[in-house]
Design a protein that fits this description.
Rossmann fold; 260 residues; oxidoreductase; SDR_fam; seven-stranded parallel beta sheet; plasmid; alpha/beta; SDR family oxidoreductase; 8 helices; 2 domains; single chain
């Protein structure tokens, strides 16, 4: 999985949105590196995900089922945790929200995306930070779309831009406490959410999914679609002592699609 060696033995890591996709791959990576991992998601599948990580790593992985848009629920879910060394704010929702969509349901989708990606990230961080000591690390999963924009993804892109602002504010606010905060900005990764977006884009434009995917990967300097496992080394690096002087940064991991 990882192409570099990291050791998180004795450390506790909390990963949100880890029932599948990038979050699950990152949680597996930390467990393989020796960490005690807790994963959190709003769906019951989080328990099966924890069981898979436990079986694979040989270390018990705890599961918390919680809707992060409910601050009180987040506080209650984290109450049983002791010290948190690393928090990975990965939970997020990606859907199209066309401005010109005549269906009022688009407004409900907009609110739900914003509530999860922006408010939920704030709630989890707010309740996790009191459990973090000097040397704590926070990593947000942002997106290349936190730097650029495409049509019809207003809520998702606005929320990911907000994540970058939040990263920078937290870095300044928590730096004096010795807590580092950074963001990872993935490009297109083969996840359920990304493939659903691809299907929606195909329906919206009338173009085939294969044609759209070829255009997307063609915009990269390095060819090919990223897999969730390709993301893991950067998260481990940012959480490691090798990155002890890095904070307030947004790291692009997109095979050269966006250079900023």
């Amino acid at each position: 999985m990882a192409r570099a060696s990291f050791d998180f033995t004795g450390e506790t890591v909390l990963v949100t949105g880890a029932s599948r996709g990038i979050g699950h791959a990152v949680a597996r990576g930390f467990a393989a590196a020796g960490a005690a991992v807790t994963i959190l998601s709003s769906g019951s599948g989080i328990h099966q995900a924890a069981a898979r990580i436990t079986a694979e790593s040989g270390r018990a992985c705890a599961a918390l089922e919680c809707d992060i848009t409910d601050s009180a629920a987040v506080k209650a879910a984290l109450a049983g945790m002791g010290r948190i060394d690393v928090l990975v704010n990965n939970a997020g929702l990606e859907r199209i929200t066309p401005l010109l969509d005549a269906d009022d349901a688009v407004e409900d989708t907009f609110r739900r995306i914003t509530d999860i990606n922006t408010n939920g990230t704030f709630y989890v961080t707010r309740h996790a930070v009191p459990k973090m000591a000097q040397g704590g690390r926070i990593i947000l999963t942002a997106s290349i779309w936190s730097r650029v924009a495409v049509a019809e993804f207003a809520a998702y892109i606005a929320s990911k831009h907000a994540n970058l602002g939040f990263t920078r504010v937290m870095a300044k606010e928590l730096g004096p406490k010795g807590i580092r905060v950074n963001a990872v900005c993935p490009g297109w990764v083969r996840t359920e959410a990304a493939m659903l977006s691809l299907r929606k884009m195909s329906l919206s434009t009338g173009r085939s999914e294969a044609d759209l995917l070829a255009e997307i990967t063609g915009a990269q300097v390095l060819p090919g679609l990223l897999e969730p496992e390709d993301m893991v080394p950067l998260y481990l690096f940012l959480a490691s002592d090798a990155a002890r002087d890095i904070t307030g940064q947004a790291m692009m991991l997109d095979r050269g699609e966006v250079m900023a």
